[in-house]
Specification:
By secondary structure, this protein is mainly α. Helices cover about 75% and strands about 0% of the residues.
Length: about 550
């Protein structure tokens, strides 16, 4: 008996009409006709090119020319599904089940299609049938586990992975997937064993290496975690892994290593957007000179790019070259990407430098070409607030919100204004309107949680909101700072210390985080440590009123005997 083997048939895409149920088709010893094979090849090529209508027609013709070939029927069903014709895909695979009841490949494809249409219970049945027919097929166990997870039965999914490893102990994917389930259940030690086994079997498996690194990090073995991530990056040159490694280096306070890593990550062949992101990573750790060098290099090659000029302007501002930064930002043309962001930053810099008329002109000119831009409206209000025209700032944002009902950026700007002006309850009300529109908005969750913690009120709600913010943004230094400040007010000082020190490592240029850490050291009766932290914060050039608070603390501590 001859069986047609079609490599990669489960990655094809096809289309057909519904097929009626018929009696099983017996395998044929006849060679595959040239017509059927030609249609199949043309269909596969069309699918790979994303031309699903043509792929559908060709695969339909191949199936008609070779009705006794189960792999072609599977490919037909798969392409239908990938083309978005789910009802036709189900009809095709149901017909294949009748024609080829003993084909594990057919039942496995049925499971995949059923799972993809949300029929997880039917998918579980199909996968079990596929496993009965071919007990060593890895894909059937993996599909079964996914279907069980779709039914919210994680224990059964875990069992499917364990069954796979009993049959196929060398399954790298099985070890990695089981490890992920074990991590969710908090069984990190067993998960580590499976990930190490996966790496023994496939040393190039970067996902396993990253997953193991995170487990080691969570178990307090940061240096081992960093070594694994470095190896994963060296093997893959993955930007995502590189950024994860960057943050892990910050976690352990290795800012020099993080800065050096950016140089390793950056390459001339990367997309401009990625390279601009690297510039902001430099700024995150206070390396404004490196960010400026990169921005100017990019500007030589992309002289009219708004995002590049925005990076250059921010780097110049961080380096204390405010006037030069403003000039760079104002030179960006209105039709360029990031024009409005450039104008907003330029206006703020001018306002903070005491150049109110220049700041107002910069925003007003930009608003003539972009009258409804929320960022520019927020900048207009900020310029007024900096100049002491608080009523004007509030009126600007309020009127804009009436026109753009509950725009999140405008709500956030008004909430921040009210908070700075000493109206925290009003600020929280505004941030609550953001959550009403977007319940998982990390910024609003953090804003409200911090406000409540800072005022030592409704700490139960602060706990709930900040827990969700931390879940959404686990490596965000500002969220960690908020949680640490909450722990401070709960008098859980050791927990607060770990969180605030971590926040200071992840956001090393933020003086307010250091202010919180200094306050904690004072509460823990460690005045020398507090003084050292306040002096670090002052060196970062904080804005008012943080600078005044820091100066007062430094003077008081130095006056002590």
């Amino acid at each position: 008996m001859r069986t047609l083997v079609i490599a990669g048939c489960c990655s094809l895409a096809v289309a057909c009409g519904g097929a009626s149920r018929t009696a099983p088709t017996a395998p044929t010893d006849e060679p595959l006709t040239g017509e059927a094979y030609a249609h199949y090849l043309r269909g596969r090529l069309a699918a790979l090119e994303g031309d699903y209508p043509r792929a559908a027609a060709e695969m339909r013709a191949a199936a008609a020319a070779a009705p006794g070939e189960a792999p072609i029927q599977v490919a037909l069903s798969d392409v239908l599904f990938r083309a978005g014709r789910r009802d036709q895909a189900r009809a095709a695979i149901e017909a294949a089940e009748v024609r080829f009841p003993d084909s594990s490949e057919v039942w496995r494809e049925a499971g995949r299609i059923l799972r993809g249409t949300g029929l997880h219970a039917d998918a579980v049945h199909a996968y079990h049938r596929a496993i009965e027919l071919a007990p060593d097929a890895e894909a059937s166990y993996l599909g079964l586990a996914s279907a069980e997870l779709g039914m919210r039965r994680p224990d059964r999914a875990e069992q499917a992975y364990r069954d796979l490893l009993r049959r196929r102990p060398l399954s790298v994917t099985g070890h990695v997937r089981l490890a992920r389930r074990l991590v969710v259940r908090g069984k990190n030690q067993e998960a580590e064993q499976h990930l190490r086994r996966a790496l023994e079997l496939d040393p190039s498996h970067t996902r396993a290496r990253v997953a193991l690194a995170l487990i080691l990090r969570d178990r307090g073995r940061s240096r081992e975690a960093i070594a694994l991530l470095r190896d994963a990056f060296d093997r893959s040159s993955s930007i995502d892994i590189g950024e994860r490694l960057f943050h892990e280096l910050l976690e352990v306070g290795d800012r020099a290593g993080a800065a050096a890593l950016i140089g390793q990550l950056d390459r001339d062949d990367l997309e401009l957007e990625v390279r601009v992101t690297f510039g902001y990573l430099y700024l995150q750790i206070g390396e404004h000179d490196a960010a400026l060098r990169l921005a100017r290099l990019l500007a030589q090659r992309n002289p009219t790019s708004g995002p590049v000029r925005l990076l250059e302007g921010r780097a110049l501002a961080d380096a204390g070259k405010r006037d030069e930064a403003i000039a760079v930002l104002l030179a960006v043309a209105p039709e360029r990407q990031a024009f409005t962001e450039c104008r907003a930053v330029a206006a703020e810099l001018a306002a903070r430098g005491g150049k109110d008329s220049e700041a107002r002109a910069a925003v007003e000119e930009a608003l003539r070409s972009h009258p409804h831009d929320a960022g520019l409206i927020a900048a207009q209000a900020l310029v007024a607030e900096i100049a002491g025209r608080t009523a004007e700032a509030r009126a600007t944002l309020t009127a804009a919100l009436e026109a753009k009902h509950d725009d999140i950026e405008l709500l956030y700007a008004l909430a921040a204004l009210e908070d700075r002006q000493g109206n925290p309850d009003r600020a929280v009300q505004l941030a609550d309107r953001i959550l009403a529109r977007e319940p998982d908005h990390p910024g609003a969750l953090n804003f409200i949680g911090f406000s409540l913690a800072d005022r030592n009120v409704d700490l139960a709600r602060a706990e709930r909101l900040l827990a969700r913010a931390l879940e959404l943004s686990p490596g965000d230094g500002y969220v960690l700072d908020s949680v640490g400040w909450l722990r401070f007010h709960q008098k859980r000082y050791q927990d607060a210390l770990a969180l605030l020190e971590r926040a200071a490592r992840l956001a090393p240029t933020e003086p307010e985080i250091l202010w919180h850490l200094g306050e904690l050291h004072l509460a823990m009766r460690e005045p020398r440590r507090a003084l050292a932290v306040y002096e670090r914060a002052r060196a970062l050039g904080p804005d008012e009123p943080v600078r005044r608070r820091i100066e007062a603390r430094i003077q008081a501590l130095r006056a002590q005997p």
